[in-house]
Target: Phosphoserine aminotransferase
Amino acid sequence: MAASQIFNFSAGPAILPPEVFERAASSVLELRSNAHARDGEGIGLSLLEISHRSKDFDAIHTGAIALVHEVLGIPDSCEVLLLQGGASLQFGMIPLNFAAAGRTACYVDTGSWSANAIKESKVVAETRGHETAVVASSKSSSYDHIPALPASLPEQACYLHVTSNNTIFGTEWESLPEVDTPVIVDASSNIGSRPMGLERATFGYAGAQKNLGPSGVTLVWYQREWVAAQPPQAGVPMILRYKTHADKGGLYNTPNTFGALVLKLMLEWVRDNGGVAGMATRNQAKADALYTLLDSSSLYTPLAKSGSRSRMNVVWRLGGAPSGQEDALTKRFVKEATAAGFSGLQGHRSAGGCRASIYNAFPLAGVTALCEFMQEFERKG
Ligand code: PMP
Model:
């Protein structure tokens, strides 16, 4: 947690609530006997030095998983794992475990992260022999919207992979698609931000470093029955099989123990602040404030089309001109914003412009202050 006057709009790793920072920090110095409670007895040891097989860590691990069900609404029929390797490892593990020759892995291409998932499916297909189909894409319009799905998916479809929020281009699915094919969702950048039908996913995953805690822990959940029914795939190392992790209660190898605690603290914070529905109200208010300003401005142009706009990552350009002039203006905007205490507004290099990431923990006051700064920047020219 940085100095108090800085509003951090980082796309991830991102801001966490002050009380989560505080409790995580105190657990590094000394873990409480009941894992995290403010008034618990200290155990005389840091969270960072206890065994992942100890009862103290077990309370953290099982507590975190219980909260994934309770707070995020992931059904009890789902296995929940806290893995490592980021969402990027899931891009490879998914086709390794679920694609087979004669089947078609289907993807919707809505931005760089979807494109990376597609790339990994194609790499796996070099030996596995499955097809990779991009069934819908918004690439030709610079990923400015969520494309419509085709009327039907390929007959041999084994899954449909979607990215529920596109962190770089600032677009978001309204809700998970309802199709007959099992849906796999990368929910890294909007998990827990609003009700969006995540419980309908057959398989889901999310890197924690936006809405769920620190980097280095990836939440994975899936319908046990569906995964058990998939034919075993040859040549997959043990650590890359979901079954390996599930059979060992999620502790096949040493997990990210710190990440598990912070994830648990984050889910408690969401629960205690109105749950996912409460997050939705807060997040909508923040996003509305920014989009209203962008839509009424002649200086700022939002990148995402309405109907596809992300409540988590708001992306805009300055000046409206595609030339180098825009770059100079953007640079000046970011420099002045940074000096005024608004950090992390530089857009991703592949989208350009500016981006305000306003995840669950980001306060409305920060958005209000940014809107005032942006209006003043536009007024003074
Ligand atoms: N998917 C999405 C939607 C993301 O935003 C990101 C990272 N920002 C990734 C995947 C990749 O995550 P990681 O760096 O944890 O592998």
In short: Residues 12, 86-88, 113, 163, 167, 186, 188-189, 207 surround 4'-deoxy-4'-aminopyridoxal-5'-phosphate (CB under 6 Å). The radius of gyration is 21 Å.
